[in-house]
Amino acid sequence: MKRFYSVIRLSFNSFKEVYSFNRSIVLFAILVLFVSALSTYFNMYLSKVIVDTIFNKDLKFFYLSLISLIVIQIVSNYLISLSYSKNNELNYAFNNKSDEELIDKIEKIDLIHKENPKFNADFSYLQYVKGKTYELYNQLNEFGLKVVSLLIGMHFLFNINLLFCILAVFFGIIKGLFNVRPVKSRVKITKELQRNAIKHSYLYDLLVGMKNQKELTIYRAFNHFKQKWRLQKEIFDQQQLKLEKINNSVFRQQEILEIIFNAIIVVLFANLVKFNNFTMGDYVLTTMAVSVTISNISMVIGDYTRMFENSDHFNKQAEIDSYYRTFLDNPNDGQLDFSLLKNIKISDLNFSYPNNSVEVLKKINLTINKGDTVAILGENGSGKSTLVKVLLGLYETKKSHVLFDGIPMNLINKESMFKKTSVIFQDFLQYHTTIQDNIGIGDLENYHNEKRMLETLEKVDIKSLGYNLQTSIGLVDENAINLSGGQWQRVALTRFFFKENLELAIFDEPTSALDPLTELRLFKDILSRCEEITTIIISHRVGIARKADKIVIMENGSIVEQGTHKELIDLKNIYYDMWMSQQEWYQEDEKEVLISTSI
C-alpha cells in the first residue's frame, strides 16, 4: 500500500508540474477525457436503441437515434482530435523546457565530474528519464479517465445484469494482473538497454562520422570496429527482444483469456434469452458494456503498472540527482571580482582524478607575474593541461593552492574570471555554424561588432580565402565549406584576437595543426598583443618557448625545471637537450619567414 501511495504521489507531482506549465490545455484535456468517457456509454445505449428499432420497424425513432449517434460521434471525435493536437503542442513545449533544464543542470556540474565515465552513463539515463514527467502526466490522465469510465460502466452493467457485471470485473482483474507480473523485469531490462545503448551508438558514430573516415580508411579499421559494433548491437538487440518477448507473452495470455470469456458470455446470454425478455439490442448493449468494462479494468491495472515502472525510473533519477546535487550546489564559487594586478601563485599543489589515487600533479610550486609570458613544456601526459584546468578553476582542489594577487581561487567569482580570460584548448570546439559564430563565441558581448570581426579574420589570414562572416563552415549545412585542420585552428585563434579587456590568456598547443611559417607569424602577433596580458603557452616546441619570460618543464606531474631560456640553457639539463634537438628546425623556419617577408 505504501508503494501505491508513492506511485500516485509521483504521478500527481508530474501532473502538477505540467498543469503549472500550461493550465488551459491541461483543463481542456481533462474535459475531453470526461466527455469521451460519457460518449462511450451514450454510443452503446444508442446502438442498442438502433438495433431494437430496426427489429421493431420504428423508422422514425431509428433515424432520430442514428442522427443522435452520428452527432455525438462527430463532436466527440472533433474534441478528441483537437485535444490530441493541443497535447502534442504541450508535449513539445514541455519537453523543450525539460531539455533546457537538463542543459542548465549539466552546465553547473564541475568539469571533473563531467569527464568521469560514470557521468556519461548517468547522463544517457537522465536523457531517457526526462521525458517521463510528461508521460507520467498522460498516464495519470488516462488512469483517471479509465477509473471514471469504469465506475460509470459498472453502474451501467449492474442495471442490465448483476451476473455479467461480476464476470466482467473478475475477468478484467485477471487480464490486468497479467501486466503486473513482469514489471520488475521490464524496469531492469529498460535500465540495461539505456546504458548499453551508449556502446553501440558510439561505435556506430565512429564508423559513419565524417571526421573519422580518413583514419579508419588508412588503418583499414572499418571491419575491426564493425565487428565490435555488431557485437554490442547484438547484445542490445537481445535485450530488446527479451523485453518484446515479455510484452508479447502478456498480450498472448490476455487475448486467450478474452476469447474464452467472450465464449462464456455468448453461452450465458443464449441461456438467459430462453427465460427472459432479452432483445437483440440488449445483446449488443450487454456485449459492448462487458467488453468495455473488462477493457477498462485491464487498462486501469495496466496504466498503474506503467506508472509503477515510470516511478521506479524517477526513483533512480532521484538517486542520480542526489549524487550530482553536491556538485550543483557548489559553495566554492566565490563573490570577489577577478583582477590580476600582481601575480598568480601556486603552492604545494597536488591533484588526482576521482576514483584514482594516482597523483597527476605533485608538489607544484610556481609564480607567474602580471604581464609575463610563461611557456610550459613537457611530454604528453606530463600534467600540463591538467595544471591549466586547475588554474582556471575547471578542476577544483580540496584546499586553495592557487592564489590570484594573494586571494584564494575559491573566493573569486568564476564568471568574472572567465570574462577576462581567453583560452584556446588543444581540443578546441569546431562550431559547425557560421564564421561569425566561431569568432563571436570568444566575446559574446561584442557579437555584433562586425568591423572588429573582419579585422580578426585578417589577423589569421582567413579573409584572404574569400570567406565572409556569414559563410557556413563544417558539415551540418549542405552549402557549408569544410575547413582543413589548420584552417579550423586559425578560426579558433580568432576568439583570442576578438576578445577585449583580457587579463589572462592561455594557449594549449594552439598551433599544432599549422605549418611552421604560419605558426611563427601568428605567434609573433599573439606575443605582440600579449605584452600586457599574463599569458601561458603549453607546447612541446622549444622555438616558441625561447621568447617566453619563464619556461617551465614538466615530467610525470612535477615541475623539474623552470627559468628563462638563458638560465635553462646554461643549466644544460632537460631543456638544453630539447633545445639542441629542435633548434635547427626553428632556425631554418625563421630564415624562411625572413625571406618570405622580404619578397
Fold and architecture overview:
This protein has two domains: 2-328, ABC transporter type 1, transmembrane domain (ABC transporter transmembrane region fold), CATH 1.20.1560.10; 343-598, Rossmann fold (3-Layer(aba) Sandwich). It is of the alpha/beta class and 599 residues long. The longest helix has 54 residues, at 222-275. The protein has a six-stranded mixed sheet, sandwiched between helices. 66% of the residues lie in helices and 10% in strands. The relative contact order is 0.08. It has helices at 2-21, 23-56, 59-108, 111-114, 117-129, 132-160, 162-180, 183-208, 213-218, 222-275, 280-328, 384-391, 414-419, 435-440, 450-459, 485-498, 516-529, 542-545, 565-571, 574-598, and strands at 343-352, 359-369, 373-378, 402-404, 407-408, 421-424, 504-508, 534-539, 550-555, 558-563. The chain is elongated.
Give a summary of the structure in a few sentences.
The protein is 66% helix and 10% strand. It folds into 2 domains: 327 residues, Up-down Bundle (ABC transporter transmembrane region fold), CATH 1.20.1560; 256 residues, Rossmann fold. Helix 5 runs antiparallel to helix 11.
